[in-house]
Design a protein that fits this description.
Blueprint: E1 4-10, E2 13-19, H1 43-63, H2 73-79, H3 88-95, E3 114-117, E4 121-124, E5 127-135, E6 141-151, E7 154-161
Antiparallel strand pairs: 1-2, 3-5, 4-5, 5-6, 6-7
Length: 166
């Protein structure tokens, strides 16, 4: 399918977003039928905490990569995160952001100065989302959607959807 990419300069930060179709953010694997039920009252907090842990682990991996990540740090850190599904790297690849030159987790070419994860919300019993606001220099920011999947009673990051600028 035809891919669209847009570039937006934000005070020295280039944000790239891509989409190939309406369902480009749809994960490649289907929900696990045996996913354990969770206490729905805690889902919002669980989604927020898991997304925060995912970003914390990713940023640590990118800034202090392990020896086995040598020469492929980005790919390694995307595929070795205890807070992500196994499908995450393929889902990120399908989004096309890395092909356009941006990091598909932070949706920019530079890393943010800081990031805040808002409380999550439930799409369905097996899917949830969290909004991540990344702050860059001079007041610039990027807002990202993190999609999570209920995997046997715990939410894991399954995809990151970068903003599309038209």
């Amino acid at each position: 399918m035809l891919k669209r990419f847009a570039v937006l300069g934000l005070t020295g930060v280039i944000v790239l977003g891509g989409c190939s179709s309406k369902d480009s953010a749809t994960p490649t694997n289907s929900p696990t039928p045996s996913a354990s039920p969770m206490d729905t009252a805690s889902w919002s907090t669980d989604i927020q905490a898991k997304t925060q842990a995912f970003y914390d682990e990713y940023m640590l991996c990118m800034t202090k990569p392990p020896a086995e990540a040598k020469d492929h740090v980005g790919d390694y850190c995307q595929s070795h995160n205890s807070n992500a599904t196994e499908a995450l790297p393929a889902n990120l690849k399908r989004g096309g952001v890395s092909d356009a030159g941006a990091d598909p987790i932070v949706c920019a070419q530079n890393f943010p100065i800081s990031y805040i994860v808002d409380p999550g919300f439930i799409d369905t019993h097996d899917m949830g989302q969290a909004i991540v606001t990344e702050k860059f220099g001079a007041g610039s920011q990027v807002v990202i959607n993190a999609h999570l999947r209920n995997d046997s009673g715990r939410f894991l990051v399954d995809n990151i959807v970068c903003p599309v600028v038209e």
